[in-house]
Amino acid sequence: MKKLIVFDLDGTLAESKASLDKEMTVLFSRLIDTVKVAIISGGDWPQFEKQVLSNLTKEKHLKNLSILPTCGTKFFQYKHGWKELYAENFTDDEKKKIINSLDDAIKKSKTKVEKTWGEQIEDRNTQITFSALGQQAPLDAKKVWDPNFAKRKKIKAILAKTLPEFSVQMGGATSIDITKPGIDKAYGMRKLKKILGIKISEMIFIGDALFEGGNDYPASTTGADCIQVRDPNETKKLIEAIIMCLGGKPVKIKPTNDKNNE
What we know:
Layout: E1 4-7, H1 22-34, E2 36-40, H2 45-51, E3 65-68, H3 69-72, E4 74-78, E5 82-87, H4 92-109, E6 121-123, E7 128-131, H5 139-145, H6 150-162, E8 167-171, E9 175-179, H7 185-196, E10 203-207, H8 217-220, E11 225-228, H9 232-245
Parallel strand pairs: 1-2, 1-10, 2-3, 10-11
Antiparallel strand pairs: 3-4, 4-5, 6-7, 7-9, 8-9
Helix pairs in contact: 1-9, 4-6
């Protein structure tokens, strides 16, 4: 029997940088009442607070939840409040090299961006993230900019040569995440094993970027059962099935026009 369900966030539980919608909040809360759950995402802690935690109002929903921001480079658990267990921070020199390499790779790839919304490069201390259209870009614009990952693959290929000592993965709708070597979602899965005492074989990982080069892909190398989803709507159906398989109280899925996640 599976003892831990691990999720990606953007594109899996919610649209890029959007909050869980009402339907997902109900399902996710019910799942946490049934089994231990973790989320590993490229976003930093404030993004989790906005997208997920602000929707979970009951404390009982939090004791079974582990949060691993910036692709597992940080780990938070709830014990009378959220506590950070570790953070794999970059040095100032590492940050400088990564940012300079990113600037150079963007130029060399000749990646075309007509308009940006906010900064393209964000320092998350444990992760440097490049968001092609900017950190505040609207979802509609992000969905059409690089749907087949072709543009970011060019940038990633250049970074593979200039930053071989770091981990470079594509994540979200328009982003590239850079972390310390060997620190990715596989690292996060192994940390979950160590901290929670749950075997990898007792975990399921669910994400929308499990293809090679996607930032969910490292999770598939751990030996955990992995399920690729197209979007949050497919995840909802999967969560409902998991709840029923684990003996939890079933939740009826109803169509919704909720705009809370936009």
